[in-house]
Amino acid sequence: MTVEIVDVPVPERWDDDSEGARLLRAWIDVRNRVSEHEWGGDTSHALSYREAWSQWRAAVAERETIRTLALVDGEPAGRGLAERSLLEAQTVAEIDALVLPQHRRRGVARALVDQLLGRMRAQGVTTFQAWVDHRPAPGPRLAAPTGFGEVPAGSPEVRMLLAYGFAIEQIERMSELHLATAGPALAEHLAEAERHAVGYRLETWTGATPPEHRDGLAALQARMSTDAPAAGLDHEAEAWDAARLLRYEESELQGGRTMLWATAFDETTAAAVAFTTLVSSDNPRVWYQHNTLVHGEHRGHRLGMLVKAANLRALLALEPDAIVRTWNAEENRPMLRVNEALGFAAICSAGAWQLQETP
Ligand SMILES: CC(C)(COP(=O)(O)OP(=O)(O)OC[C@H]1O[C@@H](n2cnc3c(N)ncnc32)[C@H](O)[C@@H]1OP(=O)(O)O)[C@@H](O)C(=O)NCCC(=O)NCCS
Predict the structure, then answer these.
(1) In Å, what is the CA distance from 229 to each residue of 85, 122, 150, 172, 226?
(2) Rounded to two decimals, what is the model's pTM?
(3) Which domains does the chain carry?
(4) pLDDT, tens digit, for every residue of 72-109?
(5) Which of 49, 201, 241, 290 has a CA positioned 20 to 30 A from the CA of residue 347?
(6) 330 CB contacts (<8 Å, ≥6 apart)?
(7) Ligand 1 pocket: which of 95, 104, 114, 131 to mutate (most atoms <8 Å of CB)?
(8) Per-residue pLDDT tens over the stretch 272-331
(9) How far is the CA of 158 from the centre of ligand 1 (A)?
(10) DSSP character for 297?
């Protein structure tokens, strides 16, 4: 058996016969086949070639990304990913390895991970982070140091991460909401939130943020990097301005995605004080609940429920059968309370792991 690792660069196109397009499709095929296997045959977590390609292209200026494909006797067997921001926290990289079920336990992941770690170390990276799905399994458990959540301790991915010296820092809950069942209660949730949210005005829009709101939304977006619970994970405050917001929105909207915004404004100052976003995927039914934030000085007025219920109502009009997926830190009780009330139910635990090396 020979294992060869090749780089997968961002191709000019994803859909032609070029070597680059072929590699992109092979890389995504590995990702989707592993995902289908891990989700017990559910293909709705797949990423389309087009979606992947437009995301890859959009990230080129702001992120350094290494994508690799492991070939066993010439056939794709696994894929590697390492990524770091070029804007902030440049010494922190995210790392991920996936191996097709029939090629496991032959050192493929080790070959991928060793190379990714080495190449990122050469760029000055000293902290590695990995977000890993953990499915229920019997046996010993590993608890997060936050005190919220635990994962099965004996799975291949946990054994591998521990063997590399990673420690679990935080557990996120991945949950899902089915609009067909949750939809009818949204109007009542919205009305209830509106009764408490006195002195605030709600606005929703589709696509890029209107120019007059960009500065305010950029300022709120920046707070996501400091206000969302990060447990012991290394991170840095992000600087956002209107131009960065526009770049982020374009990266989401490229490749045909739709983005729904709901924002609450303080009626006295006209400042944007809370927002939430929903983003579509190439599967018309599958949507992702992205960022939600209520400014620290405006909490306790049900603004989180207000913006989320309003945005889900906008989605209901567009795609009444939508499934909405989201991730929240298990210790983020205020956000989970809103999501649980709306009908989100847990489908998986995601562990945030970290390996800190001394420079
Ligand atoms: C985790 C995963 C990547 C391992 O791939 P793999 O090619 O089988 O892993 P390797 O053969 O290179 O083994 C690497 C190390 O993982 C650990 N490991 C992997 N599978 C194991 C198992 N079934 N039992 C015990 N340890 C295991 C061992 O420490 C092993 O090192 P060793 O053989 O020197 O003892 C693979 O199971 C997978 O793709 N899982 C789903 C996706 C995922 O969770 N990825 C992890 C993201 S970081």
Answers:
(1) 19, 30, 17, 10, 8
(2) 0.94
(3) 3-125 (3.40.630.30), 176-351 (3.40.630.30)
(4) 999 999 999 999 999 999 999 999 999 999 999 999 99
(5) 49
(6) 144, 146, 148, 149, 170, 171, 172, 173, 336, 349
(7) 104
(8) 999 999 999 999 999 999 999 999 999 999 999 999 999 999 999 999 999 999 999 999
(9) 8
(10) G
